[in-house]
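> call design_seq(struct)
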């Protein structure tokens, strides 16, 4: 569609000049006028011309194709069309995004569907008292039980970080790119539903609060209360 739009614009100009020549209008002077006007218009529309040049770069370099899911200029969506001035994306919740081509070529482009396989990363926090070996075996079993996890590269479980609440371990599982979202959801649900009691006591943030009450002179209220009770007993 991009090449069609460019060809249509060029042909309109050529046909217009040819028609003028056919009716006897001197095209040399017309071309001179068009050239001078083109210079002025080019200076006025430099941003638009930048979009055109960026569109040509997108078509030539092909960082993505129609149907790819990408992140461009900080926005994510599926590529629907690359036009002369802009590129149209569709978000996962069916919103339309229209991006000027110059914004795309001047920012990093992240193509999620460029390769046939993607890696799913599931981060799980386990207690410090849990058996990491057993936790690793549990996660590996969940990955192997999913029919859409590919055998090569094989799944793996790695220790990621030691946090305040527990140990973070990560399950790496490779899947075909179209299955990424579904498998990620399935593995996350499986960790929650089928791993409890199998070496995975999933940790959560905890805090211990120690509350101290003091009198105006700094004496703890507990000591004041105890002294008062002693005085009552003596009486």
């Amino acid at each position: 569609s991009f090449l069609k739009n460019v060809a249509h614009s060029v042909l309109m100009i050529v046909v217009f000049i040819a028609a003028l020549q056919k009716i006897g209008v001197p095209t040399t002077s017309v071309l001179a006028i068009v050239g001078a006007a083109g210079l002025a218009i080019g200076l006025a529309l430099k941003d638009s011309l930048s979009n055109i040049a960026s569109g040509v770069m997108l078509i030539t370099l092909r960082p993505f194709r129609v149907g790819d899911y990408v992140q461009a200029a900080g926005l994510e969506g599926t590529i629907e069309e690359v036009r002369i001035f802009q590129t149209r994306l569709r978000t996962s919740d069916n919103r339309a995004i229209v991006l000027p081509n110059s914004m795309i070529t001047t920012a990093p482009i992240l193509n999620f569907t460029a390769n046939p396989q993607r890696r799913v990363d599931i981060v799980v926090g386990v207690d410090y008292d849990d058996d990491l070996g057993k936790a690793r075996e549990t996660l590996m079993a969940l990955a192997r039980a999913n029919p859409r996890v590919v055998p090569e590269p094989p799944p793996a479980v790695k220790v990621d970080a030691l946090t305040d609440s527990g140990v973070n371990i990560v399950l790496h599982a490779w899947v075909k790119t179209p299955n990424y979202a579904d498998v990620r959801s399935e593995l996350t649900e499986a960790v929650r539903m089928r791993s409890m009691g199998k070496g995975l006591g999933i940790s959560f943030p905890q805090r211990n609060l120690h509350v101290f009450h003091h009198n105006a002179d700094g004496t703890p209220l507990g000591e004041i209360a105890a002294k008062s009770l002693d005085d009552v007993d003596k009486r």
